[in-house]
Amino acid sequence: MKPVFVFCITLLTALMLEAVPFPEQFVWFRPEWALLVILYWVIALPFRVGVGVAWFLGLMVDLLQGGIIGQHSLTYVIIAYTCAVFYKRLRMYHRWQQGFFICLLVSINQLLDFWIDHYLGYAEPTLMIFMPAVVTGLLWPWSFIVLRSVRRIYAIR
């Protein structure tokens, strides 16, 4: 398979995981799959994957979830840019330290999403908005291993 095709499959898989329905009582524990995959690719291939891919994937998440068009695009672009600025440092960290940084970035994403939703009257203040960031940070080491093995097997450079 061509490396570009495999890269697109990872993004499509992330979109499919975003669409998996969650029970109502566990909705706060839903990881940010699309952002997790984007952050991996920004760290792994910062000169090939960046804010353009983040914008496109954010737009797809907006369409998938039926939200405001551009909301996830805006937040994903901000987070991908921040990650691209710090990618050299992130590569030097251990996986658990990277997971903490990913948790911080996803927390910023959640906060930006909440501000937009609250401004429009769709969300009420709660600290549970940060639970997806914690879950995503905890999933980072395993998703890193899976995506790195995919990148190495299919020689994505």
TrEMBL record:
Involved in formation of the rod shape of the cell. May also contribute to regulation of formation of penicillin-binding proteins. The chain crosses the membrane at residues 35-57, 99-116, 128-147. The gene is mreD. Keywords: Cell inner membrane, Cell membrane, Cell shape, Membrane, Transmembrane, Transmembrane helix. It is found in: Cell inner membrane; Cell membrane. It comes from Marinomonas arctica. The keyword Chloroplast does not apply. GO terms for biological process: regulation of cell shape. This is Rod shape-determining protein MreD.
